[in-house]
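If your schedule permits, I should be very grateful for your opinion on a structural question. Kindly check, if you would, that the fold set down in the tokens agrees with what the sequence suggests. Thank you for your consideration; the sequence and its tokens are set out here:
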Amino acid sequence: MPHMHYDEADAIAVVSFAHSQNVAIREDQGVFAARELDYVKSRTYDRKLPPMNGLALVPRASDAPEWAETITYKSYDHVGIAKIIANYADDLPRADVSGKETTVPVRTIGDSYGYNINELNASIALGARLPERKAFAARRAVEVKLNQIAMVGDVNHGLYGITNHPNIGSTTGVTGDWSAVATTAAQIVADVDIMWNAVRTQSKGVHTPTRLAIPSSAFAAMNSKYVADTGGKSAYDVVRAKYPGLQIMDLPELELVDGDTLSIIGEFSEENANLEEVMPFNQLPAQARNLELVVPCYARSGGVSVHYPLAFTKVVGL
């Protein structure tokens, strides 16, 4: 069944663009081209992109309105503890008493794709689909930038990512350098113990790590070094058995963060931290520009917000 839906603004833009190029076009041909544009746009939304690590690691939130210029959120240094109370008590303990507010900017990410008059003429004359690869490339470029923001933010524009957020502290005392020949599988397991215990201890047992994100080199070492007296189990196998609720993620993006490898462990949930996705990938009506009919694309983000810093810790140099 042919694609029948179209945007009236696209139809107007097609006719205007054709006339600007001294090409005669009937109204029905303009509608046909507008339908093809709408088909490309809908296919761009529907197509599944390859998984991107930052967007897989950090939960997304879209609570802020699309027009927001800033986002203000609260972060808490510790979680309040409830207590047993008597009937009619008026001295109920307060939770999250040390919360502080942080305001971050919302930035717009944009790109575009377009079709020249020859491509439109060929589509109309042959009744053929407009090529979709341009639209897919535009969407992918926006998603790549969102992924970068989720991981390392964009400091020049006031956005933080999960790896460089100032509210997340670091843990020391690990052996580190898992790829080094001298580093044993037992030391790798001990390092994970240190990271796991750091989150549990600093949060007083409130937060339990659900994800450990490490560089690809550390992930490879974890899988290729074997713990003695375990019947040939790798450090990865031992850690997975010891912490069955912990997802270990191989993130190439962590190979070089501020000049060193970086790992992060924490309880990843939207309640604890999220990527402020104010507006997901969106496409505007086509616009006639010079020798092309251009479709502007954009998304809006406020970077990563960390509400409970004690749910996470970072380690440099694994």
Summary: The mean pLDDT is 85. The helical segments are 8-20, 27-46, 53-57, 117-126, 133-152, 185-202, 216-224, 235-242. The CA atoms of residues 7 and 99 lie 47 Å apart.
